[in-house]
Amino acid sequence: MRRNVLPGLRLSLGVTLLYVSLIVVLPLAALVFKAASLGPLDYWQIVSSQRALASYRVTVTAALGATLFNLFFGLALAWVLVRYRFPGRRIVDAMVDLPFALPTAVAGISLTALFTTNGVFGSILEDYGIKVAYTPIGIMIAMCFTSLPFIVRTVQPVLEDLDPALEEAAQSLGGSDIAIFRKVILPLLTPALLAGVSLSFARSLGEFGAIIFIAGNQPMSTEITALLIFIRLEEYDYQAAAAIASVLLLTAFLMLAVTNWLQARALRYTRRS
Is the predicted pLDDT of residue 143 greater than 70, yes or no? Predict the structure, then answer.
């Protein structure tokens, strides 16, 4: 008697496709349709205007900086949570998920209060001539806060599942700690790191609520692309908003394609090893 792998597979598949169509495909199709209603010349003038280019520069630069910081700090945090036992470990582990539970607007207000010139951290940094709030540095900090969990939660399960015998074998062969990490552990973590980095970068590109309070939102200086899209919507210029949003959408798809290609290469290398 033939049985399906999952009971009710056709029904569950139909519900899933309906959900994806309504929640994902339909909004993206509406965005593409709205942007396509512009002529090629008008579209290019909107997406290549000086203000739009400045917002791309601010957004991408801050997102790259935040992702690079999260790559090292997130890996270190995941390593500590997995490999060490210390008082308060569960509290630290739970706090990693705080950006997921905390509304981004609340996070933005809190970060602004902390890093303004009269804030707890801002007043200390001000003595050294470092200004955080209403600068690109503030944008980067907000992005770091909201996107850190993606790297930690992606790498942490892989670290927990690593076979200790691999490290023990490398130690028995005289490998140093740095050599073991670089040649044994890091190749196994690479696919997870790539996934976490791509998610972190994508979240930083689209972040809005946590940034607008600490950024200052000065055109050509601290204005992110998501805010520029919001401004165009408030001006009822839906075509311009869709055109600028399509640039972020294209960037996300390109990043996803590159990440999948790198992950495939890393998996092939791991399997061969």
Answer: yes
Which pLDDT band holds residue 34 (cuts at 50, 70, 90)?
A: confident
The model carries a pTM of 0.84
Q: CA end-to-end span of the chain, whole Å?
A: 42
Alpha-carbon distance values, 226 to 132, 133, 142, 168, 264 (Å):
20, 18, 14, 48, 31
DSSP string, 48-115: TSHHHHHHHHHHHHHHHHHHHHHHHHHHHHHHHHHH---TTHHHHHHHTTHHHHS-HHHHHHHHHHHH
- Shortest CA distance to 212 belongs to which of 200, 187, 229, 196? 229
Which candidate, 39, 56, 29, places its Cα nearest to that of 228?
56
CB 169 within 8 A of CB 273: no
User: Mean pLDDT, the chain, as a whole number?
Assistant: 86
Number of C-alpha atoms within 13 angstroms, CB side, residue 243?
Answer: 21
